[in-house]
Specification:
Layout lengths: L7 H18 L3 H7 L4 H9 L18 H14 L1 H20 L2 H12 L5 E4 L15 E5 L2 E12 L6 E7 L9 E7 L5 E3 L13 E12 L3 E2 L5 H37 L1 E2 L2 E2 L4 H29 L6 H26 L10 H10 L7 H20 L2
Parallel strand pairs: 1-4
Antiparallel strand pairs: 2-3, 3-7, 4-5, 5-8, 6-7, 9-10
Helix pairs in contact: 1-3, 1-4, 4-5, 4-7, 4-8, 5-6, 5-7, 7-8, 7-9, 7-10, 8-9, 9-10, 9-11
């Protein structure tokens, strides 16, 4: 691994996240994956280790906003289990709209318990007919005196049903298109707010994915984030900030698969010697290692850029998510190939890692959407340069 010149605090965060994940998630990951059990035991351990507030300002109970520190922890957790990693990271996704756009009162109300790991958060954007097309939302929030009446269904929401705090994007004025969307904070237990069944997924199976169902759900106007019509901006700014975290998840999954492939290649004997001595296997491992390191470098550089105060990071955030997730998919499939028949069996973790890796190419904007975003950013940059 490259020397990223981590500070003593950053090394501590990375090592602590790794230690807790190995102790609490590793022994249970196969069982949690098989049964689809939510990893509360691991989440409690992360809370006890003070890892849940890595991205939350100190004045609201966290360790100070740091995308880089959050990525370090997310990578190490995902290196052990992608499902636990996304459970950890999705709480940050649900919290970020409040951190970016919430009032001081809203932040004081919700952030301390999330930072302490006492509660989880979730982000309600995707719908059956509004995934990549976030502007096609059908969930509505109609003003009625001091309240908004919300109706609609959000789909495939990570931490759905398990989280206590939800940030929701709904249409307050359909006539205005994207400018008619608004953002709200909704608490679990609010009348009219229920959940669908837990989805039976291909990968990240211990992570809870459910529908959020709103039927004449009354939300007080104090739960509005920023002001009406800002919902689309809230969503896009949130995703720009959290996409490096998806990249970190992907890097962790890739690294975990590489670790397993190297371990197996050193132990597996064919033709009278360990297969790691075979040039064909060495070349596969070399490519896997190089690709993983390149993805890590891009994710880390993007996270550090954001932490340094960059104003516009849409392009690198999309590139980091795109490249790291494509890398995770390739590296995990190659790890299965290194293990051969064993790699295809559930007794070995690489088949799970490949299943977990696939979703990183899909959620928080598919990789096709990332390519669209990158292309538009390049056009914008080119137009800006040509005017100078």
């Amino acid at each position: 691994m490259l020397d990223y010149l981590l500070t003593e605090e950053q090394q501590m965060i990375r090592d602590l996240a790794r230690k807790v994940a190995v102790e609490k998630a590793l022994p249970k990951r196969e069982e949690w994956d098989e049964k689809g059990d939510f990893p509360w035991e691991a989440m409690k351990a992360f809370a006890d280790a003070d890892l849940c507030g890595l991205y939350i300002p100190e004045e609201y109970g966290g360790m100070g906003i740091s995308v880089f520190n959050f990525c370090l922890a997310t990578e190490e957790i995902s290196r052990v289990c992608g499902g636990v990693g996304v459970t950890f990271a999705a709480s940050a996704l649900g919290s970020t709209p409040i951190i970016l756009f919430g009032t001081d009162e809203q932040k004081k109300k919700y952030m301390p318990e999330i930072a302490a790991g006492k509660k989880l958060a979730a982000f309600g954007l995707t719908e059956a007919n509004a995934g990549s097309d976030a502007a096609g939302l059908e969930t509505t929030a109609v003003k009625d005196g001091d309240y908004y009446i919300v109706n609609g269904t959000k789909q495939w929401i990570t931490n759905g049903g398990e989280a206590d705090t939800y940030t929701l994007i709904a249409m307050t004025d359909k006539k205005k298109g994207p400018r008619g969307a608004s953002a709200f904070i909704v608490e679990k237990g609010t009348p009219g707010f229920t959940f669908g069944k837990k989805e039976n997924k291909m990968g990240i199976r211990c992570s809870a994915t459910r529908e959020l169902v709103f039927q004449d759900c009354k939300i007080h106007k104090s739960q509005l984030l920023t002001k009406e019509g800002m919902g689309f901006i809230v969503a896009m700014k949130t995703l720009d900030l959290t996409r490096p975290g998806i990249g970190a998840q992907a890097v962790g999954i890739a690294q975990g698969a590489l670790d397993e492939a190297i371990k197996y290649a050193k132990e597996r004997v064919q033709f009278g010697k360990p297969i790691i001595a075979l040039q064909a296997v060495q070349h596969m491992l070399a490519d896997m290692a190089t690709q993983t390191e390149a993805a890590r470098a891009l994710v880390y550089a993007t996270a550090r850029m954001i932490d340094a105060g960059a104003k516009d990071y849409t392009l690198p955030a999309s590139e980091a998510k795109l490249f790291a997730s494509d890398t995770a998919m390739k590296v995990t499939i190659d790890a299965i190939q290194v293990l051969g028949g064993y790699g295809y069996m559930k007794e070995y973790p690489v088949e799970k890692m490949a299943r977990d890796a696939k979703i990183t190419q899909i959620y928080e904007g598919t990789n096709q959407i990332q390519r669209n975003q990158i292309g538009l950013s390049l056009i914008k940059e080119s137009a800006s340069k040509s005017k100078k």
